[in-house]
Amino acid sequence: MTPTPSPDTQDDGSVMPPSGTAATATKGALLGAMFLMATSAIGPGFITQTTVFTAQLGAAFAFAIVISIIVDIAVQLNVWRVIGVSGLRAQDLANKVIPGFGYVLAGLVAFGGLVFNIGNIGGTGLGANAMLGVDAKIGGAVSALVAIGIFVSKRAGVAMDRIVVVLGVLMIAMVAYAAVATEPPYGEALTQAVLPDKVEFLIITTLIGGTVGGYITYAGAHRIVDSGITGPERVAEISRGSITGILVTGVMRALLFLAILGVVVGGVNLVGVDNPPAVAFESALGKVGLHIFGVILWAASITSVIGASYTSVSFLTTFSETIKRHAQWVVIGFIVFSAAIYLSLGQTPATLLVLAGALNGLILPFGFGIVIWVLMRRDLLGGYRYPKVLAYVGLVVWLLTIYLGYESFSGIVDLWQQ
Q1: What is the rounded end-to-end Cα distance, in angstroms, of the chain?
Q2: Which pLDDT value is given to residue 309?
Q3: What pLDDT is attached to residue 407?
Q4: What's the pTM?
Q5: CA-to-CA distance for 46 and 68, rounded, in angstroms?
């Protein structure tokens, strides 16, 4: 079992202070892990993807949401349980399955985290534009500096947990109001959730990748290992935390979909605009709503930048003791490098955000396949008897992620070439 690191030393490879001290222990640490996963998912990509895809598919997008939530729950239940019971990070488990696999997984997750982080910084630019009217690239550059400042704080974990709760409540309340104010066709959305007129594999894969793909898959699970919430006796707590985090994202996705659907049905064109979420929320809530949305989007993007950097570097520490000893500086470099790429690319922020989720959806089958292998072998879980139903559900979902990834590969290539 990995010991809980102190706020001032992370000799075990932790790259961010835990959400609480030993005195506050389990509840604060588990809450921090849950919100780290949730805020990593409910970031700029989440908001932009939902807006863009609702504009494209209309009410039929409801089916993609339902499928993605089902897959997300199955993935996180298995990932949190396997990592939590074993007390080992994902790359260490992978190396036990086949020596060297952990390094491959670490490289894939770090690469996916980098792509996602470019999109996250793009999201801070979109938020700054909606909030203050500044150029998106200028907002992204300044926001990267702010993220670095937040990260170097010794009490970053405590501060981020509190900020995430407040912003999460504000975000859900605002979107719920919009979902009522725009008067979307609730009946049609419910029907399309079961019997869709159109199904897009790329869109489903992108939603899954943006919610549990790439680094997001392991963000909360690695946090519980760092906090010492491990072992078969903690399975109930670990399972509740994983499900709660996904349900929060599911509620947010559904409310946001309904709000945007009402805007689209009302005749607002969101296709081809530079900042589709901003246009949608301004149409729903007016100028004040646009500024509020900008503040929340910017804050959500900052937390996602920190979450992506933390988790990606937690994988990179397996490559070198030097990286492990200087993990905080590696994180800072990770943020700087992500910002530099974002500023140099000609892609629009919205395209980057969608592309990031799709790429992470392709990484998911590899990492989740390792989890499935581990849960099928009791020797890697200290003899723990894994629930058969959960194991079989995980196996089916793993096969589904392979199929979806295959179907979406050509679409991802086309998206990048736009």
Answers
A1: 47
A2: 87
A3: 62
A4: 0.81
A5: 12
Q: What is the mean pLDDT of the chain?
A: 80
Which pLDDT score, from 0 to 100, does residue 4 have? Answer: 39
* CA–CA gap between residue 387 and residue 319 (Å, rounded): 33
Segments in the chain below pLDDT 70: 1-26, 28, 154-165, 346-361, 404-405, 407-418
What pLDDT is stored for residue 65 in this prediction?
Answer: 92
The alpha carbon of residue 23 and the mean position of all alpha carbons in its chain are separated, in whole angstroms, by 29
Q: What is the pLDDT of residue 38?
A: 81
Give whole-number Cα distances, 12 to 216, 223, 227, 239, 319, in Å: 21, 12, 11, 25, 14
**Do the Cβ atoms of 416 and 355 come closer than 8 Å?**
yes
* Gap between the Cα atoms of 162 and 222, Å rounded: 20
Reduce the secondary structure of the chain to three states and give it as a string.
CCCCCCCCCCCCCCCCCCCCCCCCHHHHHHHHHHHHHHHHHCCHHHHHHHHHHHHHHHHHHHHHHHHHHHHHHHHHHHHHHHHHHHCCCHHHHHHHHCCCHHHHHHHHHHHHHHHHHHHHHHHHHHHHHHHHCCCHHHHHHHHHHHHHHHHCCCCHHHHHHHHHHHHHHHHHHHHHHHHHHCCCCHHHHHHHHHCCCCCCHHHHHHHHHHHHCCCHHHHHHHHHHHCCCCCHHHHHHHHHHHHHHHHHHHHHHHHHHHHHHHHHHCCCCCCCCCCHHHHHHHHHHHHHHHHHHHHHHHHHHHHHHHHHHHHHHHHHCCCCHHHHHCHHHHHHHHHHHHHHHHHHCCCCHHHHHHHHHHHHHHHHHHHHHHHHHHHCCHHHHCCCCCCHHHHHHHHHHHHHHHHHHHHHHHHHHHHHCC
Percent of all residues in the chain with a pLDDT value above 90, rounded to a whole number: 15
Specify whether the backbone of 348 is left (phi greater than 0), alpha (psi in -120 to 50) or beta: beta
Q: Which residue has the tokens 């010794």?
A: 154
